[in-house]
Specification:
By secondary structure, this protein is an alpha/beta fold. It contains 9 helices and 15 strands. It has a 7-stranded parallel sheet, sandwiched between helices. Helix 1 (about 10-20) links the parallel strand 1 (about 1-5) and strand 2. The longest helix is centred in the middle third of the chain and has 20 residues, at about 135-155. The radius of gyration is 19 Å and the shape is globular.
């Protein structure tokens, strides 16, 4: 397939481009920073388009010509989930770009969603559950999905909404939990400040996230909301302890230093029923 990937140099994008190439797809990578794109080993084997989709998406639309699918990952401003720019800038810009993409002839969209669309619903979260976001980021993503579903009635394209949960791996934001832990270990600090750690989350390594997105792309019979998750909750404390063991570190964990985020339930994880139906 000829696949266009926006946000190609981001945390997910850099790994997904690699996975798509491994699976034999032709990739058109779209990102804002040319120099950053050149740092990746895949740069010379993709067609690269430098574009800021919020300022001028024209070059990206031109690159869609003859494309089989568009994987839209680009979304600036994370991990700030509370900023209203998600609604008044990102949502608005994405609607314009994706509308133009559909009207240009793209018939298969794969778009990154978020578990924050569920809001404070707890426990096992299924793909057919209603949404109730309480953050601007979750609201913006949920609104984008619902808008695209309305547009499907007019254009009949395939929409695979990859509802992402938590992930970790190479290229992760330096402010993320495991990145901060790795930094503390590397700097030989005596202790690591964290939350109480007993909250349950759904984590996957970034390679597994990329594999799931690629699998969905290659199986368009599964569509709509697709939970990109493990289905197996793990406590944040167990995740941290596992990383310490992998690193051979006995750093002291200062539990309860940080409060739990008010925008997340204490326990939640995603049930990936559609991906499981493919025996992934």
């Amino acid at each position: 397939m000829k696949v266009i990937v926006t946000g190609a140099t981001g945390f997910i994008g850099q790994h997904l481009v690699r996975k798509l190439l491994q699976n034999g797809h032709q990739v058109i990578a779209v990102a804002r920073n040319l120099n950053r794109a050149k740092e990746f080993e895949w740069f010379d084997v993709v067609d690269f388009i430098q574009a800021d989709l919020h300022l001028n998406y024209g070059p990206a639309i031109e690159g869609l010509d003859g494309g089989d699918a568009l994987i839209h990952l680009a979304w600036p401003g994370l991990p700030n989930y509370q900023g209203n720019f998600h609604i008044f800038q990102n949502l608005k810009s994405d609607l314009v770009f994706l509308k133009a993409s559909i009207e240009s002839g793209i018939s298969h969209l794969v778009v990154a969603g978020t578990c924050l669309e569920y809001g404070l619903q707890s426990g096992a979260l299924t793909e057919d559950m209603g949404t109730n976001p309480i953050t601007p980021y979750g609201f913006a993503k949920d609104s984008l999905r619902k808008s695209l579903q309305f547009y499907q009635k007019e254009y009949g394209f395939t929409l695979q909404w990859m509802r992402l949960f938590y992930m970790y791996g190479e290229g992760q934001n330096p402010k993320s939990l495991l990145s901060q832990l790795d930094m503390a270990i590397d700097e030989k600090r005596q202790s690591f400040d964290m939350s109480i750690g007993t909250q349950l989350r759904d984590y996957l390594p970034i390679e597994a996230i990329s594999e799931r997105i690629c699998t969905a792309l290659e199986n368009p019979t599964i569509n709509g909301v697709i939970n990109c998750s493990s289905g197996s909750p793990i406590s944040v404390l167990d995740l941290v302890r596992r990383r310490c063991q992998e690193r051979g570190s006995d750093i002291h964990l200062n539990l309860g230093h940080f409060p739990l985020p008010e925008y997340e339930p204490f326990e939640f994880w995603g049930i990936p029923a559609k991906l499981n139906s493919l025996s992934i």
